[in-house]
Write a structure and sequence with these properties.
Length: 226
């Protein structure tokens, strides 16, 4: 691995850990323990539904929908903690190759950076009536920041163009993120009408999103191998 790649990786890890510490310093309390634990368990469970991306040794999963729900209902510290722990679970659950500590730390830090950026971006749209636009904006920021952080490390380690890596690996999953934002907004809005537990019962429907995206990307991988 080149010096540039190592420097970049450790810089992302340092920034991610700094954000975790800063979020904990701003508001270290869990304000709704039951809701936090519910979303944490759901995020870890969603991390097991992984889609292997073509062109890179990486995966994506359903957990980003839980992050978006967290952004709309939890504090930044709670949201970033869920994202960090779920990312570790995703890295360790049935990996194609055994991940090392540096890779796990990088993935956790990249999601911490992405989730915090998405959280604060969503705060730019304040009125309750604009919940859907706020979550679409959060999904866009989450997608953009996270995919670029990962694409840059792939480009540095493989000596490819970052733009080519990003386009090859991520151009077809943006709609998946927007659909996830819609689900997160629907669950959040519905929770105000019928209660939190009843609203969460809608989440299994996101499996349809996963099945569609997994099937689509599997076809892309097959076409590349043909």
């Amino acid at each position: 691995m080149s010096i540039g790649a190592r420097t970049y990786i450790w810089s992302v890890i340092a920034l991610g850990l700094s954000i975790l510490i800063a979020c904990a310093s701003l508001d270290p309390h869990i304000h709704n323990t039951a809701r936090f634990l519910q979303l944490l368990v759901l995020a870890v469970l969603a991390s097991t539904f992984k889609i292997r991306l073509p062109g890179v040794h990486g995966t994506m999963s359903l957990n980003f929908v839980i992050y978006l729900i967290g952004i709309s209902t939890l504090t930044v510290f709670e949201t970033v903690m869920i994202a960090a722990m779920a990312t570790v679970a995703q890295s360790l659950w049935r990996p194609k190759t055994r991940p090392d500590g540096m890779k796990i730390a990088f993935n956790m830090s990249a999601l911490s950076i992405s989730a915090s950026a998405a959280f604060y971006a969503s705060q730019l749209i304040v009125p309750v009536e604009t919940r859907v636009p706020a979550l679409v904006l959060a999904a866009t920021v989450l997608f953009t920041v996270n995919t670029w952080l990962i694409s840059l490390v792939v480009a540095l380690t493989s000596r490819q163009s970052p733009m080519i890596v990003w386009r090859n690996c991520n151009r077809w999953i943006f709609v998946y993120y927007v659909m996830g934002a819609g689900v997160a907004a629907l669950v959040t809005a519905y929770s105000h009408l019928v209660g939190w537990n009843q609203a969460l019962a809608m989440l299994p429907a996101t499996y349809l999103m996963y099945a569609y995206c997994d099937g689509y990307i599997a076809k892309v991988r097959e076409a590349r191998m043909a």
